[in-house]
Amino acid sequence: MIGSLIRRYKNQLGDSLFSIMGLVLMNAVAQIVAFPLLASKLGEVGYGDLQYLMAYINIITVSVGSAANLARMTAPADERMRNNGDYQLFLLLVALLGLPFTLLVRRFGGVEMDTATAICYYLLFVAMAFRYYVDVAYKLTLRYRRYFVYYCVIGAGYVIGTLLFMRTGIWPLALLVGEMMGVLFAYVRDDTLRRRMLCPSPAISRTFRIILLLCLSEGISNLIFNADRLMLKLLIDASAVTVYYLATLVGKTVSMVTTPLNGVLIGYLARYEGDLDRRMMNRLLLGTLGAVLLFTGICAGGGFVALWLLYPAELEAVKPYLLLGSLAQVLYFITSIFTVILLRFASKGYQVVINGVFGVCFFGFSIPATLSFGINGFALAMVGAGAVRYLTSILCGYRRAGQVAREKKSAA
Questions:
Q1: How many CB atoms within 10 Å of residue 329?
Q2: Is the pLDDT of residue 270 over 70?
Q3: Shortest CA distance to 319 belongs to which of 396, 214, 244?
Q4: CA–CA separation, 236 vs 139, rounded Å?
Q5: Averaged over 31-54, what is the pLDDT?
Q6: Residue 119: what pLDDT?
Q7: In angstroms, what CA-CA distances link 8 with 32, 52, 260?
Q8: How many CA atoms lie within 13 A of 190 on its CB side?
Q9: Between the CA atoms of 151, 153, 154 and 156, what dihedral angle is there, to the nearest 10 degrees?
Q10: How confident is the model at residue 2 (pLDDT cuts 50, 70, 90)?
């Protein structure tokens, strides 16, 4: 049976393997080389401030880049290639908005930035927005071997950037070089991104509306994913940011690995002719529940090993939060995979509902819990909000399956 499944899904498994290997390599460079060196040079408070500032970039750039990416992947087949310029124009508008955003963060963010750091911070904002979009080229063409090279290029850029940081002390350089090299590689190597470059299509207003809807959904999700750094900095201090970030280190890394997996998934789902039924939902429910248990154990155990090897000085402070932090991150990325499946079969409005409920629960749970019980309260609140998001997505899936059943019954 296992052999037949492997033969049946050989191409999909190979595609997933290439993209995941590439992202694992890129993140290995970031987590083993770049971030430990940043932490050792900046110290616990300085590193906490870095993660706090990166949260702002991650919330915006990942949201807009991923939204443009998903909008193009789920567009009608005849528009995916033709409307390339619409997505690039949207990202350029976001890049312009990054200028006042950087000035506001520098003035009111609560962390000092000199002029050189602020300029590189803004450039990182722009580069990451485009980088989260440009890998759409590999999902559209299914060139997953080139996808692997793309991630290797980014990883090599992180090494170069980290060396520049060690010489200059400008921390955004550690990531900026890799992000820029990845974008440049994608544009040079794939004409999917150069076709009708910056040329608006007749459907640009509709494209923008779809991107903005997905931005709302992705923004809520990424706000929660990165809000630990913002809230812990504001409600406790920068040291609390470092402690909780390290408690979720492996979980966040695994969550990043779901990005290419989601890309492979949406690439093949775009060609799938079937629909979501109750039988498929039952399988997805059992599969996701099993994945939550399995990956929580892996992330908690892997987190302990990673801390022991890379952050031994922080190990004792972080250990009490490893299990809860890992469970919260696993619930997040398992639900994210499921919502990508739901995006193919159901209304895009479901994404807003799922992440809207998540946002309300997160802030409703975490603020009082953190004020009352500190980091432990925050960790419990993250698990609670993640569980509600997971259950909401499952209920939305069953609702769509029920609609499909009724449509088939009425058609018969």
A1: 28
A2: no
A3: 244
A4: 41
A5: 85
A6: 95
A7: 36, 45, 21
A8: 26
A9: 120
A10: very low
pLDDT class for 9, splitting at 50, 70, 90? very low
Q: List the end-to-end C-alpha distance of the chain, in Å, as a whole number.
A: 34
> Measuring CA to CA, how many Å separate 113 from each of 158, 313, 403?
21, 27, 53
> Is the pLDDT assigned to residue 189 strictly greater than 90?
no
Backbone region of residue 190 per phi and psi (left: phi > 0; alpha: psi in -120 to 50; beta: other values): beta
Of 81, 35, 23, 73, the C-alpha closest to 261 is: 23
Categorise residue 198: left if φ over 0, alpha if ψ from -120 to 50, beta otherwise: left
Positive/negative CA dihedral, 211, 335, 337, 319: positive
The model's pLDDT over 326-349, given as tens digits with 9 standing for 90+, comes to 999 889 888 888 887 787 776 767
Instruction: Identify the DSSP state of 274.
Output: -
Residue type, 255: S
The token pair at 358 is 């998540």
**Is-contact 336 221, C-beta < 8 A?**
yes
Tell me how far the alpha carbon of residue 344 is from its chain's centroid: 18
